[in-house]
Amino acid sequence: MSERRVNETAPDQPKVVLGVGGGIAAYKACELLRRLSESGHDVRVVPTASALHFVGEATWSALSGHPASHEVWETVHEVPHVRIGQAADLVVVAPATADLLAKAAHGLADDLLTNTLLTARCPVVFAPAMHTEMWEHPATQENVATLRRRGAVVIEPAVGRLTGVDTGKGRLPEPGEIFDVCHRVLARAAAAGRRDDLSGLHVVVSAGGTREPLDPVRFLGNRSSGKQGYALARTAVARGARVTLVAANTAGLPDPAGVDVVRVGTAVQLREAVLKAAADADAVVMAAAVADFRPAHYAEGKIKKRDGVEPEPIALVRNPDVLAELSAERARPGQVVVGFAAETDDVLANGRAKLARKGCDLLVVNEVGEHRTFGSEENEALVLGADGSETPVPHGPKEALADTVWDLVAERVR
Predict the structure, then answer these.
(1) Active site residue 115
(2) Are 399 and 256 found together in one domain?
(3) Which residue ranges does the record annotate as region Phosphopantothenate--cysteine ligase (predicted)?
């Protein structure tokens, strides 16, 4: 039996259109194409004419197994300017330049990619890349807001080195992170009517564990890795939200694509960052493990061990209760507040008591312990609602728990 030709599509292969804009980051789209293809997606690349100055047509055709062209006049009998978008399960544009975002927002169609964007009825993901000044310009921000309002997923650009010596916000997120967004968007699309239920919303997520310094080399901390908070951030992006992630001591985790990351260390710093971000947020999810106490005194020098002398007891003082404060003083009407509770025994009873005490709308209760929940890739929980509801989430990937949380948040926000 002869092998299947590379450009013949298996019936169950999701069809993805990879649009490539004319920016220096176009070379990174090759890695995104590879990840999509190797994970079983049938990918057709539609570059702009400008993009071909950075990566040639032959490269796109060879990597995808399909012809790559920006022209609407090639193979006219197949009506590519209509058919490509109609047949797609996902359109992802990476990099999306300021020019492409403007054309998409205003419905212009002067090449094959912009025609495809107009005819697509599937989820659309834009991964912007441009200089900071271009991203921050009011025209670009208006165009992004328009696209998000229509249901497109426009992920926030990363912060870092741009062209030349410039640095700032505008860098294309890493291809692996863009791929994760695409994967989740396709998964959401498979669940009918649920792909963009957070579109137009701003959500704040806290992640990680705070550390309270005792002296210049020691701190009081906890085992939280931040993985659940990062899963919440990634799934929210895939569902169309604008996401601010307040990350406490999560240096080992890569920044999720499309997320504004604010880094903090202590509980006091986390409180300040969360309250600032929550001022215009529709929902706040407090997944971080915030220390209840901190040392009453900070030693300016390392506390020395002295032979024959027992150390002085460490006096502790309470940290601010960020979850209770958020719940009691909502920054805007209808804001949904979600808390997390790590329990070791009497999970349901302790969870219900904490829900009542904190005053939040939802409380995700985890049973924790050695080698359980903290640091793992999986989780299970019971989500308690202030309305008396109980939603069990069976053992599985942390993304599954994240999606359940957002399902419940979306019901309450809408």
Answers:
(1) no
(2) yes
(3) 203-414
